[in-house]
């Protein structure tokens, strides 16, 4: 019996896995239903569409930057299972608001004055929800799993997350927005039920007073966590990776509509391909490393990611113009350049999954168990800062009129920085082993 098969049969892993999977599914069903509806049904300008996509990403990311330090403190100093129950109950309330926004948008009632603001408020609240759940989903693994199971568990959580993203993204592109409104509420309810089954996970050290000053606590947390060079290098490498991913995800819907002349179903297909690739990379790197937590393949993986980004850019640049209408999925996939485009996108995602999973596993196994959640929280703060910067850069490039396909090259350049950080982390890893 493989480690993965063994884990999915265990209560110490399965309820958390399902809860995380449903949360990721709901995030993406709601966010993509909102973005695709606005891009394809409200705005009719490449600049406005790109701006809204960037605003939506930024609104979701900001809570990670502001609240991750408090989330990490709570996860390390309180029972993680109790926090999960509270957070998942709040998701039901949040999705009632978000579902109302989607329903009003479908009805066409005050779309820009009421429906879109309601959806953005719910998206921000889901960012808060994910901020408090994020440190737990990684920090609880070393507490409930054996040391030799952590990499497999981390890989399964990452793979499950992206399968959930895949499913949520497919539905967002293919179902009507009123069904999405109902779906996000029902999913939140099921997620709450699953979260109640997670076994207790009490703190691994004596509780300390919480610091509610997010500025002071954030700086203190980052300074304390990154005092070890290897943790700092891992966090920076992950941050640049997510900055790359943010820029790409912002560009996909308006790029599909305005450069590739494709429908929202095709835009959804792009996100699906990306999610499948991340899942493949997440699982395959565990087999390649044979369960050993190491950054050995990080630099080569992200270099290949950059190569595939350049290939994606070249195909987009060569894409022939169309006079009118948008391609549906069946018309899109028979275009001569469709297969190279989708394969380059798949390559980006597979390489990305192979790059990032060992780094997350490193963060959860290298530090003391009593510090794991705060380490992940520090990582989330730096990650979210990099993602906000990526969003702002994408907004600025759109505002200055730089074509969307040219913006893709920014992601390729950022892959080089991630590769340098990954290589440095592996050198530090080998030095610590005396090699």
TrEMBL record:
One Pfam family matching this protein: MFS_1
Keyword Cell membrane assigned:
yes
Principal localisation: membrane
UniProt superkingdom? Bacteria
Tell me what this protein is called.
MFS transporter
Q: Cellular location of this protein?
A: Cell membrane
Annotated InterPro entries: MFS, MFS_trans_sf
Q: Which UniProt keywords apply?
A: Cell membrane, Membrane, Transmembrane, Transmembrane helix, Transport
Regions crossing the membrane:
21-43, 55-74, 86-106, 112-138, 150-173, 179-195, 231-254, 266-289, 301-320, 340-363, 384-402, 408-426
Under the heading Gene3D superfamilies, the entry gives: MFS general substrate transporter like domains
